[in-house]
From TrEMBL:
Belongs to the PanB family. Residues 461-618 form the Ketopantoate reductase N-terminal domain. This is 3-methyl-2-oxobutanoate hydroxymethyltransferase. GO terms for cellular component: mitochondrion.
Amino acid sequence: MIPSHNIKSIKNLNKLFNYNSSNIVIQSFYSNSISNNSNIVHNKNDIYTFNNNKNENKNYINNINSSFKSIIFNNENKKSGKLFFSSHVKEDVGDMKKTTILDIKKKYKDNVPISMVTAYDVMLGEKGTTNVTMDQMIHHCRAVMKGSKRSFVVGDMPFGSFETSPSDGVKNAIRLIKEGGVDAIKLEGGKRQKETIRAIVNAGIPVVGHIGLTPQTASNLGGFKLQGKTSEEALSVLEDAKELQEAGCFAIVLEMVPEAVASSITQLLDIPTIGIGAGNGTSGQVLVYHDMLGLYSDFVPKFCKQYANLSDTINNSLKSFKSEIETRAFPSPSHSFSMKESELKLYWEKIQTLNTNKINDNKQMNEFYDSVLSTNKNIISQNNLLKEKKNSINSNSNINNINSNIKNSVNNIDSKNNNINNINNNINNNINNNNTNNVTPNQLVVPDKMSFGNSNKKPKIAVIGAGAMGSFFSAKLAKKNIADVWMVSSWKEHVDAINRDGLKFYNLDGKEENVKGIRATLDGMQVLKDGPPDLALVLVKSNSTKQAANTAATIIGGNPNGAVITLQNGIGNREEIESALSDRGLKNHVWQGVTSNAAIVVSPGLVKQTGIGGTFISSSSFLQSQLPKPSTIEEKIALDTFNSILNESGVHSDITYNVEGMVWGKVVANAAINPLTAVLGVPNGVLMENEYSKNLMKKIIHEAIGVCNAKGIKLPYGEDSDEAFKYVSEIAFKTAKNYSSMLQDVIRGQPTEIKSINGVIVKEGEKFDLDVSHNKMIMEMVLSVSNSRKQQLKFI
């Protein structure tokens, strides 16, 4: 539902701005949309608010109206931490002293640039600003004044309220002051409004002028176009400014005029000028709030600098919300309420006596109850963790015990350090003897706190993602029955085929194996039926990481000793997962790794391995040294155990202490191979058959190496581009028959990972002012090919 007048507060707006800066100006417009896709025309009927106080800014913002313009002028903090009041008022007068025109004049006199931000919205749905009435503006003014206690508020005179005669202008200005409650008014127009302005000023009402581009009469100016671009036009704007000053305006807005014109006008006037699209020589500057923060991406005015891109953030958030609902990732246990198990049992006994057509089978009823009971336990566990975190933050009762705890910890360090070498030696011996002594991962000696290594049961692993690599690792982990494997995917046909017939896996020799030990599901909550997993393995495309991270948090959250590991392509995936866990108050470890294995899903329920390579895993907890700190010993043992599970399942794996180098090394390889195969439509090995593709690969690699060197990343093959090309070539030869995932995405018309691979190289390279032109070119080519393929599929 969209109300005709929306006066909900923008509660978090104050967080976006630093109120300790010299001036903060919030300016909100009543506005319109010039097209259905939210292209923006800025500067409409408005209300200005000049403000001096941090707390007042918060109060004002929390009552901000969708249809007004306000300007908040905020002084620098005093050394005492208090804000300046009006220049003519003593400091001890009080926090609620009203800001006056004198504050603005003082800033102008002291040559302090005035910062202005425009909050802009389109809640009334008018086609243009000329439709706005006095009654509407009075409504907007009242809404602002209810939240503004110290601000100097200026109400904008709507079109038709002052053009007819000076007497009409005075009459409506008085209405805006009297009924709207504002302190001053603003009106558009140059010397033709001189007498009206003079009459309003003589009536005791302060006036802000507005010249250059005047939105209310833009059609008369030929549209929203630059004004004053010829000498004759520039002199006319200057004459307007002088006439408005002479008529009594205390400030003038200059919109869309050349910088030379605006600068000269500012020098020739004795009152402040606020520029919007008027260069850097005015007394102050204004940017439209929505434009500056990128709330609309379809149109950005030339004079606007975008400091953020909230349009994508908002759209992606809405998509994620919808996706999480559809995949039941939201609400998670941390967003849900539990009930006592005794009450749940009593409730269940009673509803079993009810006649229902939904569940009439006892087995089905019992399975449903088990699921409900497991979910309820998970909610209780999650809520207990959140309570513990809250209590640890808010409680000060343990302060007196800190010193004694520190002493105890110090006393224990020596004994723990003495055991480090023995523990690591035991781990290495277990791993090295894995083949000769037939030691399985379940036989490793692991502390009771860790999920892996429990001799009473197999570890439970949930693979999130059922694409080529998700299917490959699921098959490998399940076929030797050394882990209880779940697969979570939104691909219904694939899930149904696996549950019905098992996963058919073809190895490099073409031998078919039918893996029956995988439980596939569309709903991540099903994984929790028999308890949360010990490990969640994320293997989705990087553009789906956020959704997968939320799924991982949902299913691993009930096991504080469980871990999440990502083997995805690209940069930033681990951080995305860590953020999702942290947002829910979870402290589970997040591991990261890379793999050079290759596979392709031939059809639902059938995956074929097309390349073999190493897999390297690690944890950010002990990246600095091969000898981990005592606090990470248990995590290291668990990671070593998972490493053994991979090797036992036939995936050659090792632990690395340079995971960043390994991840970026994989990025460099992917950047050189994947996009070229996607553009040329060939398997990996074809790239090595002609000099043209190899030369382009070398150029892409050279640029990527430069980025890694600038970031101080140590790649596994060093800093030499030739060595890097040899490394990448070896991967291409080993996976010669493989069709890269990027090529598969292009063929299917699906989003690619190009922005997480070459796009990251371009982004990081531009930060260091490096030449990344070849990476940028191939990225744009893939995006173009991908988009063209989508268009083709629409007609198939």
